[in-house]
Design a protein that fits this description.
By secondary structure, this protein is α+β, with helices and mostly antiparallel strands. The protein folds into three domains: 146 residues, no CATH class; 75 residues; 125 residues, Heat Shock Protein 90 (2-Layer Sandwich), CATH 3.30.565. It is built from 13 helices and five strands. About 1% of the residues have low confidence.
Amino acid sequence: MSILLDKFILFAGCALLFFHWAPQLSLLHVVALLSSIIFLCFCGCCNLDGFPLRRLPAASRLALIFLWFLLAAASLFHPAFGFLLPFLFYELALALDGYSYFAAGIFPFLSFRGEQAIYLWTVLLLYVLAWLLAFRTKGLIQLKQDFRLLRDTATEYNLLLQQKNRDLAEKQNHEIHIATLKERNRIAREIHDNVGHMLSRSLLQSGALMAINQQEGLKEPLTALKGSLSMAMDAIRNSVHDIHDDSIDLECAIKDLFSDFTGCQIHLDYDMGRFVPSSVKYCFIAITKEALSNTARHSNADAVSITLREHPGFYQLMIEDNGDGLNLEKKEGDGSGLGLKNMKKRAESLNGHFSLSTRRGFRIFVSIPSEKANA
């Protein structure tokens, strides 16, 4: 908008001076006026935002340079075109860096060499006005660019900060989840070591009392006591097993397997929720352990990729290496090993799907339907 206003001011000044110079218009004068309008329109199309010449596309640069030379040549042809030189100076001051565009100040002297001096100095005064307008507009454009850059930078930093906050919250929640699982595991061990042993001793004592008891009236109460202790022992054992199963973190358990596997580099891509059924956990842990063992013993791989992902309807495990998968399949399939069969049985026991491929390495794909999908 500021560029359009600048050009309108310059056009008003040049038009007033032009009509003072030529009160009666001829065809050449009309052509000069139309040329000024065409020049302004084409320059505006080539450099709509007022960017420096070096930032414009090659086609726009060539078009602008052609228009500048055309107007300069026309001003040397007839003074009627010399009144358009302030437009040329404005475009040069707006598009060129430095002060090399002041060389265009020689054109008025050449164009108005046979005219009155007042027209020459008025055009030079319009030059000064064009330079002031271009200088102000370039400053405004630079301020707008700085503002946009600052706004974009602030937005980018804000997005990064939000991402960092989300990552920090997820990490904190994960650490809380791990701490909760460890506490459950500790409670399960305490119950097993203390309450479980006390119940076991009580069962032995009740059995000993039943063996040495000679009174008929105490047989039934002792039998009921032993039955109650057995039921309590079974309930404690089931609770301990449930707590222990829930306290296993699948990601940590998979990573623990890496400590014993030093043959090659392992990449883990884990994308599963916190609440994974214990049966799925044990299945994936066992399959991963067996697959890593097979890779270490039979494959010549130097890189292993493990992917665990939870989908809306199933749990997915993918293990692949860059070794000699075909030889591994032959070694496992000739009856000397049961690793692949055991992995397949584990998956099928949970109504899952097990498949393997030996192209470009050894690949295992396991999918187990989730309880939500079965519900």
